Amino acid sequence: DVVMTQSPLSLPVTLGQPASISCRSSQSLVHSDGNTYLNWFQQRPGQSPRRLIYKVSNRDSGVPDRFSGSGSGTDFTLKISRVEAEDVGVYYCMQGTHSWTFGQGTKVEIK
Amino acid sequence: EVQLVESGGGLIQPGGSLRLSCAASGFTVSSNYMSWVRQAPGKGLEWVSVIYSGGSTYYADSVKGRFTISRDNSKNTLYLQMNSLRAEDTAVYYCASDLSAWGQGTLVTVSS
Asked: Hey, is B39 helix, strand or coil?
């Protein structure tokens, strides 16, 4: 099974400052069809998850452009260029190349 | 507008069965890949099962052989039949369409 490891697990950030979350997979996420099925989700307190990014770097409709995804192979990153108060919550990476697996989650809070 | 509404959760004894439903509107369930994801109290997200538009189904090892995902195109509804329930199946169960639209979740509590 593919293991997804996120770091850090807790991320205190200052409003207006950038933030970065790392996600590493135990094996390459490049699918035989050439795509890399790596997603990022946001879960605000008391809400359902919401997908932000699909296939590494594609933003979902309505997602602010301060969110960006990058990476390849086994190493991936979610970046928030300037953190806003509404960004507080838990962020999960999820791979869909080898069955499906979520990372443990990274809790983003305001300092 | 795409909307997903789960129902069917509740308190069930270990070893019991429960069927969750996810009523969809604004799109056709058979045209998308539909999945179930669960979240135990205070824990992270765990993928449970997926059914693709072509009908292929896949399950997490933790539920394989006990849970069955299906859909009723005439009712535009996704289902999750859960048998032989265990305490560790206690969670909020979310349905999702293409992972881009999610329901509000339904709580399943397995306890005696």
From this structure: strand
Give me the residue label for tokens 């809790």. Answer: A107
Rounded Cα gap, residues A47 and A72, in angstroms: 30
pLDDT digits (tens, 9 = 90+) for A31-57: 999 999 999 999 999 999 999 999 999
How far is it, in rounded angstroms, from Cα A88 to Cα B47? 23
How many CB atoms within 10 Å of residue B86? Answer: 13
User: Residue written as tokens 């997602």?
Assistant: A63
CB contact under 8 A, A102 and B44: yes
Residue of A48, A90, A105 lying closest to B105 (CB–CB): A48
Rounded CA separation B11/A67 (Å): 39
* Closest residue in chain A to residue B101, using alpha carbons only: A50
Q: Are B104 and B44 in contact (CB under 8 A)?
A: no
User: Parallel, antiparallel, or unpaired for β B18-25 and B45-51?
Assistant: unpaired
**Which secondary structure element, helix H or strand E, spans residue A54, and what is its range?**
strand A50-54
If you count DSSP H runs as helices and E runs as strands, how many of each does chain B have, helices first? Answer: 0, 11
The 10s digit of each residue's pLDDT in A69-111 is 999 999 999 999 999 999 999 999 999 999 999 999 999 999 9
Inter-chain contact B44–A104, Cβ cutoff 8 Å?
yes
Cβ distance A74 to A28 under 8 Å?
Answer: yes
